[in-house]
Design brief:
By secondary structure, this protein is an all-alpha fold. Helices cover about 60% and strands about 0% of the residues. Helix 1 (about 1-10) runs parallel beside helix 3 and helix 3 (about 35-45) packs parallel to helix 5 (about 60-70).
Amino acid sequence: RWKAAMALGSIGPEAKDAIPALVANLSFPGVLVGPACGEALAKIGAAAVPALIGGLDHKDQAVRRLTIKAL
């Protein structure tokens, strides 16, 4: 999953169709997937902002931190 997220991030804004899947995987257990998804969302850019806003009040502190970093 982290490799897929990294690949999507390298695509950039054209990967906007993957935003829902990347947001859903911000809370994936482990140390690689969530940060890779956050980085990919940041590289996708403005199209990811509306989806990321919902992560600001997520129950998981790690997801909130990744969301803030991506924004």
